[in-house]
Write a structure and sequence with these properties.
Blueprint lengths: L8 H7 L7 E6 L2 E6 H17 L7 E5 L4 H13 L2 E4 L9 H6 L4 E4 L14 E3 L2 H7 L16 E8 L5 E7 H15 L9 E4 L6 H14 L1 E4 L2 H11 L3 E4 L1 H15 L8 H13 L5 E4 L6 H9 L4 E7 L3 E5 L12 E2 L3 E5 L4 E6 L14 H5 L6 E9 L5 E6 L3 E3 L5 E3 H9 L4 E7 L6 E7 L6 H12 L8 E6 L19 H13 L1
Parallel strand pairs: 1-10, 3-4, 3-5, 4-7, 5-6, 9-10, 9-11, 11-12, 12-13, 23-24
Antiparallel strand pairs: 1-2, 7-8, 13-14, 14-15, 16-17, 17-18, 18-19, 20-21, 22-23
Helix pairs in contact: 1-3, 1-7, 2-3, 2-5, 8-10, 9-10
């Protein structure tokens, strides 16, 4: 299938040397390094030659389990050149063990974790990521002739949480990646601004959506700054990006920091001026726009940034669909997740549940999952059942109301959509996350992750009481279960995209919820 807007992004990344005018920077708490994109390309091609010399060829699979780094990017770009399949493993969910190599049929696994001592048959395939530098410096090896990607050719193996909490593997196709990046570029024009663009990303590169921006930089010519979640706030101002790619939780944390700083307003400025000044102090003075998605953003947080002079555009997508809809400078409707991308079709059934059909599907089934998982999500006609509730307005803007699974049916027949209530509770500065449950279908119980440690219990209960006064009787919170520690990725309560994992939270706090 061809479309006039479709750019062969991956073929350009693999075959064309980018301009020396643009740079890729890696910024961490212990320092920063910056390289011309042309040098990144040259290093990646040398690495590709060495991987080919080790016997790797198109379709072979390599794993990367490491924090964001130059080496991560070089391995990924080398894999694109050789048409290898990259499996990105989040260290919080996996261990760098030979069993991982066997389970996912990896030719090699590169990690920044300690490499275990083992004499097993897969032990020699677990390598330290520090070996990448040595491979690049070794004698140059010839590369096989390049060949264009087929649309249905697998680019990467990505992982998404299953209903059991175990990661499901999903093999993502080159066509799905090319079409998503092409549509985004048509709307946002990265690199086409008079002063150029520098995109700032800090979520793990194991999430293939984060690697989109690496491919975008190499293909379209713009700067890219790669950091980590821990370093994002300290380095933002000095990095001076034009675009920040973040999840809603990141922007909510940033908002609280900005508001705290703005309380110390200068005598000659208004509250609005203080907010704007502190926002620019945190994000730098070159911001063109902020990008958010992966979870619902609070409407008041979106308004906060717009009022501070930092446009923020919310979007919608799943691992199984890539980007489905996005607000952008040419079409922005607050409250929606934007207009549907070219090549995507949104279908809404009589219950309001969203399904998505794509010109270039991510895939038609999971590569690794429990029995029945693929059939539950992927329809026989290529349609993906998202499990989200929503609607389209007359201008084609998509609105998300919550998860179909998160609609609680009370014993009186009343249906309660929990997402808006959870968002209302999270408006409190004392509440970082909130997940609602309904034991015995009679009353709502809120499990609250506090924003501070120790928790400000008085503020939490006061906010819940204030919210209850505005909610219908069946929507009111009967009890609050206070988490003993804040939800994090490391303790298994948040996904790698910093979304609460409802099943894991229920399992951890079931006794208190059912009490």
């Amino acid at each position: 299938m061809t479309r006039p807007d479709l750019v062969p992004v991956l073929d350009r990344v693999a075959q064309q040397r980018p301009s020396e005018a643009h740079r890729m920077s890696f910024v961490r708490l212990d320092g920063s390094r910056s390289y011309p994109l042309s040098e990144i390309h040259d290093r990646a091609m040398r690495l590709a030659g060495q991987l080919a010399a080790l016997g790797l060829s198109a379709g072979d699979r390599i794993g990367v389990m490491a924090a964001n780094s130059l080496e991560w990017v070089l391995l990924d770009l080398a894999a694109v050149r050789l048409r290898l399949v990259v499996a990105g493993f989040e260290p919080a969910k996996f261990a760098a063990e030979p069993d991982l190599v066997r389970r996912y049929q990896l030719a090699l696994l590169f990690t920044d974790r300690p490499v275990p001592d083992s004499d097993g048959p897969a032990a020699d395939r677990v390598r330290s990521i520090d070996e990448v530098a040595g491979l690049i410096e070794a004698a140059a090896q010839p590369l096989p002739e390049p060949r264009d990607y087929a649309d249905d050719e697998v680019l990467t193996l990505k992982f998404t949480s299953g209903s059991s909490g175990q990661p499901k593997g999903l093999a993502a196709t080159a066509g799905s990646v090319n079409s998503s990046i092409s549509a985004v570029q048509a709307w946002f024009g990265h690199g086409k601004q008079p002063d150029g663009d520098d995109l700032f990303l800090f979520l793990p590169l194991s999430l293939v959506q984060q690697r989109y921006w690496v491919y975008s930089a190499m293909c379209f010519g713009h700067d890219l700054t790669i950091s980590t979640y821990e370093a994002a706030f300290p380095v933002l101002r000095t990095a001076r990006p034009t675009v920040v790619m973040g999840v809603p939780g990141f922007y909510e944390t940033a908002r609280k920091h900005i508001e705290a700083q703005a309380r110390r307003a200068r005598p000659d400025e208004s509250a609005e001026q203080a907010i704007g000044r502190c926002a620019r102090a945190l994000f730098g003075d070159r911001i063109r726009y902020l990008w958010t998605g992966s979870a619902p953003a609070r409407p008041d947080t979106l308004r906060f940034y717009a009022d501070a002079g930092l446009p923020i555009y919310e979007g919608y997508g799943l691992n199984e669909t890539c980007i489905v809809a996005k607000n952008h400078p040419g079409a922005h409707r607050p409250g929606s997740v934007g207009q549907v991308l070219p090549g995507k079709q949104v279908l809404i059934d009589t219950d309001g549940v969203i399904s998505v059909r794509s010109d270039f599907p991510v895939n038609h089934a999971y590569a690794y999952s429990a029995p029945g998982e693929s059939e539950r999500v992927f329809g026989p006609d290529g349609v993906v059942r998202t499990g989200d509730l929503g609607y389209l307005d007359s201008d084609g803007f998509l609105y998300i109301r919550g998860r179909a699974d998160d609609v609680i049916v009370l014993d009186n027949g009343k249906k309660v959509i929990v997402a808006p209530i959870e968002q209302q509770l999270k408006a409190s500065p004392a509440i970082a996350e909130c997940v609602l449950f309904c034991p015995r279908q009679t009353q709502l119980v809120a499990v609250v992750s506090p924003a501070t440690e120790p928790a400000d219990e008085a503020a939490i209960h006061a906010h819940v009481a204030a919210a209850n006064s505005q909610l219908a009787r069946d929507e009111q919170i009967a009890r609050v279960v206070l988490a003993e520690s804040r939800f994090t990725v490391d303790n298994g309560m948040l996904s790698e995209q910093f979304k609460p994992l409802r099943l894991q939270i229920l399992q951890r706090y079931r006794a208190q919820i059912d009490a």
